Amino acid sequence: MHSGKRQGDARTAGVRSTAVSTSNERRLCPVPDIGRARRQPCPGRPRRPPTMARRTPSGPDPDRPNIGGRGQVVEEGMPSLEAAEITAGRLHLRPWRPYDADAVHRLCQDPQIQRWTRLPSPYEHAHAEDFATRQAPLSWVQGTGAPFAVVDATTEELLASVELMHITAQGEAEIGYWCAAHCRGQGVASQAVAAVCRWGFGTLGLSRIEWRAAVGNVASLRVARKTGFVLEGTLRQALVVGGGRRVDCWVGSRLPADPTPPGRPPHRSG
To answer: What keywords were assigned to this record (predicted)?
Structure first.
């Protein structure tokens, strides 16, 4: 576990989505209305202005994956992301839905998730509800994140979370993930992370995906290496994890030209 195209009129009320099938990916448009937004629909690869002002909303900047924290840095003018669904073998990756809150709350009581991610403590049902109903959809609308619920393709059971976050106009993003305790060691996280990286490079046209994890988070390191991330070094006191502890973190990255990990299909551009 770790600790993080486009279309959709953010002014549309509710969700009136049309699925567009592209091999193993379905893109849903538009995304739900979350407050006031000025983003315009943008089919395919995003067109972003060369320079963008940044603003910082009130509240602390959470250590994503964001499953209950408040506030984040947002690039003004980022076009909304087209909410996507990805099929990866036995896994189905889809946007979060309000009814996921119960499962998120239950799974995030796990001590390991609370140790390595920044969660409010205690982690209450209201935090999970806020994530599933407001924060996750808002990331798509703002164009700065692509949070996926990872579910069993047959049973729809929630297994994990994978998110591209802090997406920038320069084509950079960070990946974050956690995996339910009962399905660790079964390849769920690595399969989902690999699928999201392929989607990020091939559909969003990203130029770099960064991975960070607290020093000692061996499970996250194992997933990162298995999915082709190159370890670049250690940043001192650069990550805040469970209980508000500031710790050293490992940092690595994947680039589009990096070798595809064994057993993984290569990403396709366009």
So the answer is: Transferase
pTM of the entire predicted model = 0.73
- In terms of Cβ atoms closer than 10 Å to its own Cβ (0-12, 13-18, 19+), residue 4 is buried
Q: Which two tokens stand for residue 231?
A: 């370890």
Res 65 pLDDT > 60: no
DSSP letters spanning 216-242: T-HHHHHHHHHTTPEEEEEEEEEEEEG
Residue 19: alpha-carbon gap to chain centroid:
20
Residue, of 262 and 186, whose pLDDT is higher: 186
Q: Which band of pLDDT confidence, cut at 50, 70 and 90, is reported for residue 31?
A: very low
Read off the tokens for 177. Answer: 């993930």
* Pairing state between β 25-29 and 158-165: unpaired
Answer left, alpha or beta for residue 158, where phi above 0 means left and psi between -120 and 50 means alpha: beta
Tens-place pLDDT, residues 99-122: 999 999 999 999 999 999 988 878
> Structural domains in the chain?
18-44+54-254 (3.40.630.30)
Task: Specify the DSSP element, H or E, that contains 193.
Answer: helix 188-202
Composition of the chain by helix, strand, coil, percent to 5? 25, 30, 50
Q: Are 96 and 131 in contact (CB under 8 A)?
A: yes
Task: Establish whether the linkage from the previous residue to 95 is cis, with ω within 30° of 0.
Answer: no
Which of 24 and 177 is assigned the larger pLDDT? Answer: 177
- Cα–Cα distance, 52 to 70 (Å, whole number): 22
| More confident of the two residues 78 and 150 | 150
When pLDDT is cut at 50, 70 and 90, the band that residue 78 belongs to is: confident
